[in-house]
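Structure ticket #2291
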Amino acid sequence: MFEPISIKEYVELFVRDNPSEKKQVVEERLRDILHAALSGTKCACGNPIWVIGAAEVGLSCFTCITGGTMPEEDFEIEEHLNYLQKLT
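Resolution: structure written out below.
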């Protein structure tokens, strides 16, 4: 399962590991994708998009982005996980 993380926390980690990235740009990218996900945008395969991965490579799910079937210690924005949980 995904590890929930806030946008603020993720941006801090991402910028720490990618010092050439600007916090504001990373956060805007995440918020744009989060908005799409919360509006019902799905991956081309029909699965929910993975906000963190999609912010870097486009509107796709975890499996389409990584080729993996289950996230292991991978982060996802907690607001999106809460939204998905309410749908089930």
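Closing remark: The helical segments are 7-17, 23-38, 51-57, 62-66, 78-87.
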